[in-house]
Structures are given as structure tokens and as C-alpha cells.
Write a structure and sequence with these properties.
By secondary structure, the chain is of the alpha/beta class. The protein has two domains: about 10-80 and about 335-440, Aspartate Aminotransferase, domain 1 (Alpha-Beta Complex), CATH 3.90.1150; about 80-330, Aspartate Aminotransferase, domain 2, CATH 3.40.640. The chain is about 40% helix and about 15% strand. The chain contains 16 helices and 14 strands. The protein has helices at about 10-20, 30-35, 80-90, 100-115, 125-140, 170, 190, 200-210, 235-250, 265-270, 300-305, 320-330, 335-360, 385-390, 395-405, 425-440; strands at about 45-50, 55, 60-65, 120-125, 145-150, 195, 215-220, 250-255, 280, 290-295, 365-370, 370-375, 410, 420. A seven-stranded mixed beta sheet has the order 4-10-9-8-7-5-6, with helices on both faces. Helix 4 runs parallel beside helix 12 (about 320-330) and helix 13 (about 335-360) runs parallel beside helix 16. The longest helix has 24 residues, at about 335-360. The two termini are about 20 Å apart. It binds 4'-deoxy-4'-aminopyridoxal-5'-phosphate.
């Protein structure tokens, strides 16, 4: 399908499945994100199968996949080594709800790969692991407030589903934003424990920390803000967070759900050389199966280790998911693998920049090769924080994404999300992707 433009009606089976789904599934979907991320409106595509960097929908259309399950299918789809390892587990029992040897090997590998990981705990999703890290920080410090940054996303659970994407009217003053619950149903008491701050602004950070002196258990951030179109940390900003948290006895948590094991074997903390007290992992960790982790400083994890701070989960580190993670991390621990991911992404980023430049379309391509986004801002400047993105031309991003989809390239439909590159991308895939990018820009 690459190189060809999808004819009208090419995705009719997806439309019919979506009509049918609405009579049984709430809203026809299994996650609110499916509607924003996997459009196109008014119906999402139903994927039937995938192999390597390609996926096929129920009408048989093929796409080069840069959603890769929000970065989870980091080795590509149906990776043969992963499939073999998982098949073996299917034959011997997927879950016993007991300790298993794979979780030990996996934790040891994470210790070896991730700078902050002195002790590890497993969970099933990023949201759960964030909850675990926040619980650990609160249990250790005896404090309850958490500082989060406007626009950063840390999962759907009540704890931190605050000011994920407030609109301009509700967001409040720039330097002291309102804490805006992401959804009805989040209790005011929970929201009251979250203090929101603009990203990449040292003065605003110090002011918020000073205003709540002695109250914060944790400061949490996405070191590369995947959920804000891969907004990068300003030079020195992560180090500043580290210094301020150390000086004030606050636990610094890096939410590496998107960056972990993807931006290199040691994630963003290794990339930027700033070691948090705790970090959260999911997505790439499981290679497409549901497993997550939080990990960090021995003394911070100690109350959890001693059983005073509680954390549970029937499915945590099941042999099936722990095996998926072990196979995946053994791949990602080879520098050549993450280098290939990075270089592949850089090639696409360059193709976007070239096409935009040739057609004089103002935009910026930001992030790193492994995860990046095209943002259509009038001045073509990279975003520094969430509110910059409110000024971006989301309709143009939507048109770009739609034109890509019609040319067989599948990316997240949401302009504040990003492209994720898998290790399975080949030279041919990259050529086809760059050609589709060029074609998509010709329509803008
Ligand atoms: N943190 C970040 C940075 C994320 O991007 C996400 C998911 N998009 C989460 C946490 C929550 O992870 P999950 O969807 O697995 O609960």
C-alpha cells in the first residue's frame, strides 16, 4: 500500500466494526485514549495483525507503524524471539501468583541497565507503577503533596490525573497554574494534594517549592515530555530539579514510561546524566505485554521492602509478562539496537524538516530519534512548555497525520503525542516512510 493513496471506502470494515462496538463497549472503545490517538474521526481503525514494523487493518490495508502500541512494541510486531519465548511459557503455565525466577533475572537486568535502580518492584501498567512510586515517596517522607508539571501525563488514576491538558480558560495563571482535574470523578481531596508548575522555568519552580516548603513528598516529571509533543528539557533543567530536590529532601521521580529503555539502555536518566531517586517504567519494558516497574534508591524503597509501605497486584511480574520483558530488555541492552532505533527516527525527522523547508511550511520537529513529533507553530520554535502547544496548529497536524495514514504510515492522531520508532524498521520501511512524508507535505 505504500506510495499509493488509499481510495474512498478503503476502511469500511473498520467503520462497521465501530458501529457494532458501540452497542456493547462503552463508547465503542476500551480506553479514552483510543479515540484521540487512533482515529481517524469519526471511527478508529481496527488492526488485525502485524509483523515487524508493519500492521494491517481488518480491510487488509497495510501501514508502517509508528504508534507501535504507544511505544510498547519496541521490537516491532510478532518479533520471532519474543514469540518463541512466550509460546514456551504458554505451554508451561502463564501465572501462578507466586514468586518466579524470571522476575529475579529481570530485576537484576534492570539494576544493571538503569542508573537509579537499586531496588525494583513490578506492576502491570504505567498508571499503577506511578501510583507505586508516589506511595513509596509519601511513605518514605511522611508528606503528601506532589509537584507535577502542567501538561505532563502520569496515567489515568486519580493520584496524578491533574492538569494533563487544561484548556487556556481553566489553566489559571502561568506561574501558578490551577490544579485542574482531568475528569469528573476525581475527588477534590486528591486534587488538593497536587501542585502544578510550568515546565522548564527555574524561577517558577523555585517559587512553587518555596510556597510549599516542607510539604512535598515528590516532584514528578516526564524527562522528555512525550505527552507534550516531545518537549525537551532545557539545558540544565533536569540538573536543577535534582539539586532542588536534594536540598529540600524531596523525592525526584522520573516518569520514564515512554523514555525508558527506548532512548538508550539506561533511559532518559542515562541520556541526560541526571539520576532521580525513583523512576517508573512501562511500555518498552514489556515489548508489547503489560508489565511496568518502579525502581530507585535503596533507602526510599526500604519501607516497601520491609512491608510497612504496601503495594500489591495479582498479576505483577507474571511469568508470561516477565519473560516478555526479559527478552525485550536483552535486545535493548545491546547498544546497536537502540542506536538503530535512534538513527531510524533521525532519518524520518530529517525528511520532515526537509519537506517542511522545501514547501515553506512553518513547523518544528522535536524530540530524539526514538520518539519525536512535528509541531506546526507559526514561528517554528520548539515548545518549552505545555502552553506553547496550545498555540500550535492542531488542525494542520490532523491534516498531516491523515495524509500520512492515506499513504500507509500510521502515527498517533493526537498532535500532543508523538511518533515512536521500533527496532524492526528496515531501510525499505524508512524509504517508504520518507516518501509518504514528502507526499503528505505536498497536500498541506
Ligand atoms: N506515564 C506516561 C509518561 C505515559 O505516557 C503513560 C501512558 N501513555 C502513563 C504514565 C500511563 O501508563 P499506562 O497507560 O500503562 O497506565
Amino acid at each position: 500500500m505504500n506510495g499509493r493513496i488509499q481510495p474512498p471506502g478503503a476502511t469500511d470494515s473498520s467503520r462497521r466494526w465501530f458501529e457494532r462496538a458501540q452497542t456493547s463497549l462503552a463508547g465503542g472503545i476500551s480506553s479514552s485514549a483510543r479515540m484521540t490517538s487512533t482515529g481517524p474521526n469519526p471511527y478508529p481503525l481496527y488492526m488485525a495483525d502485524g509483523s515487524g514494523a508493519r500492521i494491517r487493518d481488518v480491510d487488509g490495508n497495510e501501514y508502517l507503524d509508528y504508534l507501535v502500541s504507544y511505544g510498547s512494541a519496541v521490537l516491532g510486531h510478532a518479533n520471532p524471539q519474543l514469540t518463541d519465548a512466550l509460546t514456551a511459557v504458554l505451554h508451561t503455565g502463564t501465572m501462578f501468583g507466586t514468586c518466579n525466577t524470571v522476575e529475579v533475572e529481570l530485576a537484576e537486568l534492570i539494576q544493571a541497565m538503569v542508573p537509579c535502580a537499586e531496588l525494583v518492584r513490578f506492576a502491570n501498567s504505567g498508571s499503577e507503577a506511578v501510583q507505586g512510586a508516589v506511595r513509596a515517596a509519601r511513605g518514605y517522607t511522611g508528606r503528601s503533596k506532589v509537584l507535577k508539571f502542567e501538561g505532563h501525563y502520569h496515567g489515568w488514576s486519580d493520584t496524578l490525573a491533574v492538569s494533563n491538558r487544561p484548556d487556556a480558560a481553566e489553566a489559571g495563571p502561568y506561574a501558578a497554574p490551577h490544579a485542574v482535574p482531568h475528569s469528573p470523578g476525581i475527588p477534590a481531596g486528591v486534587v488538593g494534594d497536587v501542585v502544578v508548575c510550568p515546565w522548564n522555568d527555574p524561577a517558577a519552580l523555585r517559587a512553587v517549592l518555596d510556597a510549599h516548603r516542607g510539604e512535598f513528598a515528590a516532584v514528578i516529571c516526564e524527562p522528555i515530555v512525550a505527552n507534550n509533543a516531545c518537549t525537551m528539557p532545557a539545558p540544565g533543567y533536569l540538573s536543577l530539579l535534582r539539586e532542588e530536590c536534594t536540598a529540600r529532601g524531596i523525592i525526584l521521580v522520573f516518569d520514564e514510561v515512554c523514555t525508558g529503555f527506548r532512548t538508550g539502555p539506561g533511559g532518559a536518566q542515562a541520556l541526560f546524566g541526571v539520576v532521580p531517586d525513583l523512576a517508573v517504567f512501562a511500555k518498552a519494558l514489556g515489548g508489547g505485554l503489560p508489565i511496568a516497574a518502579f525502581a530507585g534508591r535503596r533507602d526510599v524503597m526500604e519501607p516497601l521492602a520491609a512491608g510497612r509501605v504496601k503495594h500489591g497486584g495479582t498479576y505483577n511480574a507474571s511469568p508470561l509478562c516477565a519473560t516478555a520483558a526479559l527478552v525485550t530488555l536483552r535486545h535493548l541492552n545491546q547498544p546497536a539496537v537502540t542506536k538503530h532505533i535512534e538513527e531510524s527516527g533521525l532519518r524520518i525527522m530529517e525528511a520532515v524538516q526537509r519537506a517542511a523547508h522545501d514547501r515553506r511550511i512553518p513547523c518544528v520537529v522535536q524530540g530524539v530519534g526514538a520518539m519525536f513529533q512535528t509541531v506546526f507553530t507559526a514561528d517554528g520554535m520548539p515548545s518549552r512548555q505545555y502552553r506553547d502547544l496550545l498555540r500550535a496548529d492542531q488542525a494542520r497536524h490532523g491534516a498531516f497525520r491523515h495524509a500520512l495514514l492515506g499513504r500507509g504510515v500510521h502515527v498517533n492522531a493526537f498532535g500532543m503525542a508523538c511518533w515512536f520508532v521500533s527496532a524492526a524498521v528496515t531501510e525499505d520501511d524508512l524509504d517508504a516512510t520518507c516518501e509518504a512524508v514528502e507526499g503528505a507535505f505536498s497536500t498541506l
